[in-house]
Design brief:
α4 runs antiparallel to α5. 25% of the residues lie in helices and 36% in strands. Strands 2-1-5-6-7-4-3 form a 7-stranded antiparallel beta sheet. It has a single domain, classed as Roll (Pnp Oxidase, Chain A). It has 5 helices and 7 strands, in the order αββββββααβαα. The chain starts with 11 loop residues before the first helix and ends with a helix. The chain has 201 residues and is of the alpha+beta class. A hairpin with a 2-residue loop joins β1 and β2.
Length: 201
């Protein structure tokens, strides 16, 4: 990912929290010599050897999994908030731009055995059900329903590199109060979220 130096976030703890918060990512590899992308939850975890990994699964009906190759790097993309920034908010003439937060993670994909897939599904459902009014648990599902696991392929990705871009009007700090105020006045969630990021909340 092209990232000018001033936009790089090299605070790994900060970037890991971002991935956990924005875990609905995009898995990219090559299928028949073309890039193929699937939008799925990719959960950041630590494996038994203490390595940072991303854990996910896709449907067996999706041909992407048939092109998972040993030792081949895949790309996982995590998108955060983004917003248009009007240069009318600057003190001097300049072109408009776009502020955004994005993280790319690269690594080697390993297909999981069924037991490991089940464990990952229990963790995934428990994470997202905890704030439900009436949380369900896979422990309460019937064997018939749980047989659906046969229709997915689970995997983990051993992370080898993480690139994080936090483009938040760096270099225009003198314009930040006006930019933040204008973003806050907008109704879309992206603008408000970028304002929050610029305030470092």
């Amino acid at each position: 990912m092209y990232t000018p130096h001033q936009y790089k976030n090299e605070n790994l703890a900060d970037v890991k929290e971002f991935i956990k918060k924005h875990s609905f990512g995009i898995l990219v590899n090559q299928v028949d010599n073309k890039p193929w992308a699937t939008h799925i939850p990719l959960e950041l975890d630590i494996d038994s050897e203490g390595n940072d990994v991303l854990v996910g699964h896709i449907a067996k009906a999706n041909p992407q999994w048939r092109h998972f190759k040993e030792k081949e790097q895949v790309l996982c993309i995590f998108n955060g908030p983004h917003s248009y920034v009007s240069s009318s908010w600057y003190q001097e003439e300049e072109v408009p731009t776009w502020n955004y937060v994005a993280v790319h993670a690269y690594g080697e994909l390993v297909v999981l055995e069924e037991e490991a897939v089940l464990n990952s599904l229990f963790k995934l459902v428990d994470k997202y059900e905890k704030d439900s009014k009436d949380p369900l648990s896979l422990h309460d599902m019937s064997p018939k329903t749980m047989r659906q696991i046969k229709g997915i392929v689970g995997f983990k990705i051993l992370i080898s590199d993480i690139q994080a871009t936090y483009k938040l009007s760096q270099g225009r700090e003198h314009d930040h109060p006006k930019i933040i105020a204008e973003l806050d006045e907008r109704q879309d969630p992206g603008s408000k979220a970028i304002a929050k990021c610029m305030r470092k909340e």
